[in-house]
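Most newcomers find our protein records easier to grasp once they have seen one. Sequence and backbone structure share a record, each on its own labelled line. To make this concrete, we reproduce a full record directly below:
***
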Amino acid sequence: KAIDKLGFSSPTVVANYIESLRLLKRLDDALYIINQVLNANHPYLHLSNDIPILFNSANVLEELGRYNKAYALIRRINILKPELHRAWELGADILLNTPYVEQSLRDIRVGTQAQTEAKANAEAHEISTKVETSGTSWPIDRSDAREKAMAHIEGYLRSAVMAIPKSHILIHLLGAHLHRQGRVDEALQCYIKTEAMKPDFIPAIANIGAALQSLGQAEDAIIVYERLLPLMPGDAGVRNNYGSLLGVMGRREEELYWLLQAYDLDPHFENININLGGFYQDDGQIGEARKYLIQASEVTTRSRDLLKLRAATIMNPVFRSWEHAVLSRLRFEKDIR
């Protein structure tokens, strides 16, 4: 009714209308309004820099899978209002939790994405000198497009942390991105800083445990996981990691107990099945080991054939060197069967 009466003269009405359509899952209707409002040749050009309209439009575009366009609107908000933490967090979510990177690789290869983002970065620096990026904000000159995309994401997250230094969410997301890149020491520092800011933020505690485990600091990781167990009673991953660490420490009975606890919570968790397969092989129970490896092969999306091959060639631990030799040879057979 307000749109019928006022048209697009009120930015507040337009922003609320777009968000209402999104909540009702009328995304195509919302997109129609967005295209009208943000059209450079449209008489409503004065709305194109309205922060709530831009933010709500970005939410709609993300849900529609138009990640590049959503991200472009978020970058505009970052420049116009760098103190708005919700925009930085949505931008980070688009970069980390959607196929944005895959969608962007083609543009990065021909250079258009890098040019666009470099220009946006320069504008952001003019508006807010607080946003520092340590020279890694936007895609750097490397031949590998994925490395450029990863550098771009890191730069965005560092810009976000500089702009909103009190956001524990952004610091944690930066740590998660570094962790994915194998930079575990740097990730751990982000997680520790996040926990210091927000002691009850469970994802940070969980990732501290995972990082310590990756770094081989089993005793410290066990202490962290023992804190997590009562905080995450239904989490299979925590119990799987805890059991694996106990196995590293030679506490085999406890290892099996927690791996089976994890399995009961999520029997389709690939790593749980692999860890149970490894446990039973070490214990000489080849039939049980094979069963869990086959189950792992049925739920994985990454290495199905290799897991089946491992299940087929699994042997008693005393023959492990022979097993590895057979496995290595069969991996190069053209017919995996």
About this structure: Residues 130 and 163 are 6 Å apart (CA to CA). The longest helix spans residues 145-163. Confidence is low (pLDDT under 50) at residues 104-143.
